[in-house]
């Protein structure tokens, strides 16, 4: 009986060993069958046996088998890292949560000081003649009332001077006064008339003086191409970018904003020495800067708080003590490249000449208190008419749409589109991949 049991045990052990050996051979053969060889430089080249690449001649190496098998499944904890950058962003950026409360609906814009066209005066020639000497060299050259503009030779002025000298010795008082008045109408000053009577000589080089103070220009057709806003200083209607702080119209924030209005730089005048001019020909325009314009751009949603007659605060960022209140005098709509925005203009009194045309300014408007669920402007990425934030979920940032209901300076009211305890990225712009588009999961 013992011999039978012993022989049975040996038979079982032999059967098990043979079974394991067959399984190992099967596994080895399967692995061998799956083994492929490829070129390190040309992955498209595949072979069942070692050899050389037919393209570059390099030795083929075993290709790794990435087919699904035991241990090859992606773990759930890594799945989020394998999604494209336009759907999920991995970052350690600082996070915030929305703030409930009330804020003052004020807006801050960046703008520029421009000349006021309401103080534009024209200088035209009263006589025909030739310019002998020109004292005005470039546009926006500053002149004072009574300063010399040019010396001209004019037959009309020569004849009028000869009449004055003749009537001085041979005419009546009435005729002499009439000769004086004729010279005044031809552009002569009382001092020039007195000098002629005192010297008794005719001046063939007659000086023309400015009747106004300000800055010389040659009008909108030369000094600055007139824009659709009607200003001769705005060079063109720029394409929009925007901001709530136009300072955003951008402040490095997540808003597209319209650029500040531009001021024309000085360029040479077209009038030259030796040029012949005719009576009535317009020579120059003189812009008086005792009043200037504060100009800036605004987006359509900001216009309700920027009505004509509304008072705004204008300040100069580089001059802390320079600030004043002004009233809006013009709201001019623009539409360009599929974007709507408006030019806002306010009149600023400038008797002390502290405000300089071309100077950058900051404009602030103040509204009423508004209760809401607030996010900083940097946390919201504006994509045309849609706004996006990056919510933190499972250690990564996922984009999601929000709805902006109101603005208060650098804060945006997103209402109930985000819960007050939601954690999101403080700077949404920082998470945008330059080679990807943001895809929001709907």
UniProtKB/TrEMBL annotation:
Residues 1-22 form the signal peptide. InterPro entries: 3HB_CusB (IPR058791), Beta-barrel_RND_2 (IPR058792), BSH_CusB (IPR058790), HMBD (IPR045800), MFP_Cation_Efflux (IPR051909). GO terms for biological process: copper ion export; plasma membrane copper ion transport. The keyword Signal applies. Residues 121-235 form the CusB-like barrel-sandwich hybrid domain. GO terms for cellular component: cell envelope. Residues 156-203 form the CusB-like three alpha-helical bundle domain. Residues 292-367 form the CusB-like beta-barrel domain. Transmembrane segments: none annotated. Keywords: Signal, Transport. The keyword Transport applies. Residues 36-63 form the Heavy metal binding domain. GO terms for molecular function: metal ion binding. Residues 225-254 have a biased composition (Low complexity). Residues 220-260 are annotated as: Disordered. It holds the Pfam family BSH_CusB. This is HlyD family efflux transporter periplasmic adaptor subunit. It comes from Arcticibacter tournemirensis. The lineage of its organism: Bacteria, Pseudomonadati, Bacteroidota, Sphingobacteriia, Sphingobacteriales.
